[in-house]
Amino acid sequence: MQLVLEKRAERSTFIAVASPLIAIAFTLITMAVLFAILGKNPIAALNVYFVEPLTDSYSLMEIAVKATPLVMIAIGLSLCYLANVWNIGAEGQFIMGAVCGSWLAVVTNGTGAGHWVLPAMLVMGALGGALWALIPAICKVRFGANEILTSLMLVYVADLIMDYLVRGPWRDPKGLNFPTTAAFDPVATVPTLLDGSRLHAGSVAALIVVMLATVMLGRTIKGFESRVVGAAPRAARFGGFNSKQLVIFTFMVSGALAGLAGIIEVAGPVGVLQPGISPGYGFTAIIVAFLGRLNPVGILIAGLFLALTFIGGEGAQISMKIPLDLTKVFQGILLFYVLACDSLILYRIRLIFPLKKAAQGNVHGTA
Amino acid sequence: MLNPVPAQGPPAAAPLLQAIGMTKLYGTFAANDSIDIDLYAGEIHALLGENGAGKSTLVKVMYGLIQPTAGEMRWMGEKVVLVGPSAARAQGVGMVFQHFSLFENLTVAENVALGLDGKESFADMSARLAKVSNDYGLPLDPKREVWRLSVGERQRIEIVRALMQNPKLLILDEPTAVLTPQEADQLFIVLERLRSEGRALLYISHKLEEVKRLCDTATILRGGKKVATCNPHQETAASLARMMVGADIGIVKAGAARATTVPRLVIKDLSLEPDDPHGTYLKSISLEVKGGEILGIAGVAGNGQDEFFAALSGERLSGAEGNIVIDGEAAGLMSVTERRRLGAAFVPEERLGHGTAPRMKLSENALLTGHAASHMVNHGFIDKPATLETVDKTTKTFDVRKAKRDPEAASLSGGNLQKFIVGREILREPGVLVVSQPTWGVDAGAAAVIRQALLDLSGRGTAVLVISQDLDELAEISDRIAVMFHGHLSEPIPAASANREKLGLLMGGSPAGESTGQKEAVHAVGA
Question: Is the ipTM of this complex over 0.85?
Answer without folding.
Answer: no
